[in-house]
């Protein structure tokens, strides 16, 4: 097809005009070629013919397009209000984005660091560091954010515990100066008690020598091992006993001989007796606080199997928390019938007949933090004693801001229960028989239970190190 046969509608038209040509310019067959177009390489006939055709097409196109553009302009409608709002909002946000990027890319002016920076430089630096830290947390792994929250929470708990400990130490010193400690304690004036992590007091009686020997043969270290455990790990283990109704009698002399051999007793200014366990517990905590500056104080019966490594590792979890009361929490019935075991003479104080006690740790084994032991030491002359010592301890703490920790690892049953848990990787901290409130026939069975449920040698060091690292 020749160029002269091409329809005018197929030529490129922009806004009613041929691109690059003014609509007011009329082209005729005799118009000269534009200065930008060279006729080199074309014959005179071909060039003349092309110029005529091109000029004719331009005039026709401009004549037809001008009325159409006027019609379109007449039909044009104004933008709706919604479109205007959307366009403005889009432009605004695009502007913010571009301006923010330009601000970040632009370097600070060199002359801005001067006298003004001396007054506000530190504040701007801290603000910038804080913003960068938050920006990293926002863009980082969610685990990093949770770790940051956990560290902050632990720091707050540690600070709270420090304040609570200082308050208790101040109260203890005031009580000592005012004669508020109602029991004789082996403290030396002017000397601070030695530091320890935990003091484990094993409640025992004059007639329980075989029980004590069964523990020394299993989980209670002897001699040099006992001393190293105390000095290197801060774990103090003592058999706790008072004196007989006739001080200096045969019972007391027997304990003197045993203590001279084993060096593992803690002697209390207390008259021994089964119905005096609440008084003995109160006196034990008072004497222990005055003798050792420990994080925790544990009371355990001499017919219970204990894994020292697991016990210390579990207590280490609560080291930064103030006012902690750890044990197997229970709420047994208040027994009002006379003559039955665990009879409560003051049953009427717990409400109507058939009521249950408030939640408290079972008496076989429990632990309290230093601030709670100090509270008992300060206030022990006025702390009421109920018939059962575990109920008495719970009553002393029930009205305080205390965290009750129900740790079922402290009340595992004897084999096969504790043995199965050990095989599953959940070594028990303490084991006993609920039916006997301790291990039934403990003297005969303690060695077998230790073999089946014991944690093994070196567990104290390993578990304690792992807990400290955590």
UniProtKB/TrEMBL annotation:
Pathway: Protein modification; protein glycosylation. Its cofactor is Mn(2+). Residues 19-41 are annotated as: Disordered. Pfam families: DUF4094, Galactosyl_T. Its main location: Golgi. Residues 80-176 form the DUF4094 domain. The keyword Transmembrane helix applies. InterPro entries: DUF4094 (IPR025298), Glyco_trans_31 (IPR002659). Its EC number is 2.4.1.-. It comes from the Eukaryota. One of its GO terms (cellular component) is Golgi membrane. It is found in: Golgi apparatus membrane. Keywords: Glycosyltransferase, Golgi apparatus, Manganese, Membrane, Signal-anchor, Transferase, Transmembrane, Transmembrane helix. One of its GO terms (molecular function) is galactosyltransferase activity. It is a single-pass type II membrane protein. The chain crosses the membrane at residues 81-100. Belongs to the glycosyltransferase 31 family. This is Hexosyltransferase. It comes from Oryza barthii.
């Amino acid at each position: 097809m020749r160029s002269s046969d091409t329809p005018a509608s197929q030529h490129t038209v922009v806004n009613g005009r041929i691109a690059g040509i003014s609509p007011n310019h009329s082209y005729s067959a005799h118009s000269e070629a534009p200065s930008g177009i060279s006729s080199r390489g074309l014959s005179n006939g071909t060039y003349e013919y092309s110029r005529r055709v091109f000029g004719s097409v331009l005039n026709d196109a401009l004549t037809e397009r001008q009325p159409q553009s006027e019609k379109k302009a007449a039909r044009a409608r104004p933008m709706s209000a919604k479109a205007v709002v959307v366009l403005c909002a889009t432009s605004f946000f695009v502007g913010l984005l571009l301006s923010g990027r330009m601000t970040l890319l632009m370097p600070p002016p060199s002359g801005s660091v001067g006298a003004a920076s001396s007054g506000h430089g530190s504040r701007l630096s801290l603000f910038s560091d804080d913003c960068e830290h938050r920006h990293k947390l926002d863009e980082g792994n969610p685990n990093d954010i949770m770790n940051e929250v956990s560290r902050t929470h632990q720091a707050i708990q540690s600070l709270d515990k420090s304040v609570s400990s200082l308050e208790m130490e101040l109260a203890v010193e005031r009580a000592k100066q005012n004669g508020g400690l109602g029991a004789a304690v082996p403290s030396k004036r002017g000397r601070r008690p030695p530091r320890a992590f935990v003091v484990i007091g094993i409640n025992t009686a004059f007639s329980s020598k075989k029980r004590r020997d069964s523990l020394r043969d299993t989980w209670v270290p002897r001699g040099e091992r006992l001393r190293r455990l105390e000095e290197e790990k801060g774990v103090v283990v003592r058999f706790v006993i008072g004196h007989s109704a006739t001080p200096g009698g045969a019972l007391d002399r027997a304990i003197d001989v045993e203590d001279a051999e084993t060096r593992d007793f803690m002697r209390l200014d207390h008259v021994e007796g089964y119905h005096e366990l609440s008084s003995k517990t109160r006196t034990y905590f008072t004497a222990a606080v005055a003798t050792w500056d420990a994080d925790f104080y544990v009371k355990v019966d001499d017919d219970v199997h204990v894994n020292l490594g697991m016990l210390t590792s579990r207590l280490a979890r609560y080291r930064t928390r103030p006012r902690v009361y750890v044990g197997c929490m229970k709420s047994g019935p208040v027994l009002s019938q006379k003559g039955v075991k665990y009879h409560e003479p003051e049953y009427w104080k717990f409400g109507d007949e058939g009521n249950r006690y408030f939640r408290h740790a079972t008496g076989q084994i429990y632990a309290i933090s230093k601030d709670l032991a100090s509270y008992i030491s300060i206030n022990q002359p006025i702390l009421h004693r109920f018939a059962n010592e575990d109920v008495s301890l719970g009553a002393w703490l029930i009205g305080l801001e205390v965290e009750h920790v129900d740790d079922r690892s402290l009340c595992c049953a004897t084999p096969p229960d504790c043995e199965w848990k050990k095989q599953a990787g959940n070594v028990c901290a303490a084991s006993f028989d609920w039916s006997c409130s301790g291990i039934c026939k403990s003297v005969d069975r303690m060695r077998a239970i230790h073999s089946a449920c014991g944690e093994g040698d070196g567990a104290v060091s390993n578990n304690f190190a792992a807990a400290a690292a955590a």
